[in-house]
Amino acid sequence: QVQVVESGGGLVQAGGSLRLSCAASGSIRSINVMGWYRQAPGKQRELVAHITSGGNINYADSVKGRFTISRDNAKNTVYLQMNSLKLEDTAVYYCRFAQLGYQYWGQGTQVTVSS
Fold first, then answer.
1. What distance in Å separates the CA atoms of residue 21 and residue 2, rounded to the nearest whole number?
2. E strand segments, the chain
């Protein structure tokens, strides 16, 4: 049994910052990829960023230079530091953990950016 819990979402003004976290607990081990996705109403879910166990990182073009993904393997936790937030960043953000033969998703956390 694996539990994945997200936190850190909320309402923030454009130009502000927010930090998301996602922690996995239970019978999980050797997490290869930790990632963040987001989905706005009526839109497809899209990759925001991911980080591998080897430290390889990818970002969506829309967030490069503004968002930073990091992981703490000892805590089975992935973070997303979001700076210089824009209105178009408004979405539900989901974390995802993946290992051989398995993937786990967080429940989603709402991020709303206001003018």
1. 16
2. 2-7, 10-13, 18-26, 33-39, 46-52, 57-59, 67-72, 77-82, 91-99, 102-105, 109-114
Q: Both tokens of residue 63?
A: 């967030």
Residue that is written with structure tokens 């993937």 in the block: 103
Q: Decide: residue 42, CB within 10 A, 0-12 exposed, 13-18 middle, 19+ buried.
A: exposed
Rounded CA separation 106/96 (Å): 6
Specify which residues 71 forms β-bridges with: 78
Q: Which two tokens stand for residue 100?
A: 């051989």
**DSSP secondary-structure letter at 27?**
S
CB of 20 within 8 A of CB of 79?
yes
- Which SS3 state, helix, strand or coil, does residue 30 take? coil
Q: Give me the mean pLDDT over the 77-91 stretch.
A: 98
Whether the predicted pLDDT of 101 surpasses 90: no
CB distance 13 to 113 below 8 Å: yes
